[in-house]
């Protein structure tokens, strides 16, 4: 588990390293679903879907399956595409990156029509805990 300070240092180091011409870092293991690049724009590859708590959550995942986990959470009115530029840098530094669509965004759906629709931070936190449980992730660093 990395502290926020170590996480920030890793992101800064990865960013600086990515700007050096001819320099490329390799992840510790093969990427699970590395982001794809088309033209000058970066986008995530195929999205994944998993039932977690009250939701079926759509998410992007990239990086080595055994790497330290970073969960990137978007805010309103944005979505996971806020992180298409930073994800490859984190993957290059060896991180497993999970970027979920929060409730009400993208392919994330409520599993029951009877579930109360709530966008409070506590509900979103419960969703993320359920996602981590569904993915069997015990520790993660969060960015948002």
Structure, described:
With 144 residues, the protein is α/β, with parallel strands linked by helices. The chain has one domain (4-143): Rossmann fold (3-Layer(aba) Sandwich). It has helices spanning 4-19, 87-92, 121-134, and strands spanning 36-38, 41-43, 48-52, 55-62, 69-72, 96-100, 109-110, 141-143. Strands 3, 4, 5, 6, 7 and 8 form a 6-stranded mixed sheet that branches. Helix 2 (87-92) links the parallel strand 5 (69-72) and strand 6 (96-100). The protein is globular and about 40 Å long.
Task: Walk me through the topology.
Layout: H1 4-19, E1 36-38, E2 41-43, E3 48-52, E4 55-62, E5 69-72, H2 87-92, E6 96-100, E7 109-110, H3 121-134, E8 141-143
Parallel strand pairs: 5-6, 5-8
Antiparallel strand pairs: 1-2, 3-4, 4-6, 4-7
Per DSSP E runs of 2 or more residues, the count of β-strands stands at 8
Radius of gyration: 15 Å
Biggest sheet layout: 6 strands, mixed
Reported CATH architecture: 3-Layer(aba) Sandwich
Terminal residue distance? 17 Å
Strand content: 15-25%
Helix content estimate: 25-40%
Per the CATH scheme, the topology name is: Rossmann fold
Helix tally?
Answer: 3
Tally of distinct domains? 1
Q: Specify the structural class.
A: alpha/beta
Taken from the alpha-carbon principal axes, the silhouette is globular
CATH homologous superfamily classification: Alpha/Beta hydrolase fold, catalytic domain
**What's the average pLDDT?**
80
């Amino acid at each position: 588990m990395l502290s926020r300070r170590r996480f920030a240092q890793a992101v800064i180091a990865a960013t600086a390293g990515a700007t050096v011409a001819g320099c490329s870092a390799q992840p510790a293991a093969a990427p699970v679903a590395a982001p794809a690049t088309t033209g000058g724009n970066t986008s995530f590859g195929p999205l994944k879907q998993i039932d977690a708590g009250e939701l079926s959550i759509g998410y992007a995942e990239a990086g080595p399956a055994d790497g330290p986990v970073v969960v990137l959470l978007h805010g309103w009115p944005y979505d996971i595409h806020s992180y298409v530029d930073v994800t490859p840098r984190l993957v290059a530094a060896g991180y497993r990156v999970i970027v979920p669509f929060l409730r009400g965004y993208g392919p994330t759906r409520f599993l029951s029509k009877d579930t109360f629709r709530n966008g409070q931070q506590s509900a979103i936190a419960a969703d993320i805990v359920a996602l981590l449980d569904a993915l069997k992730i015990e520790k993660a660093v969060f960015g948002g």
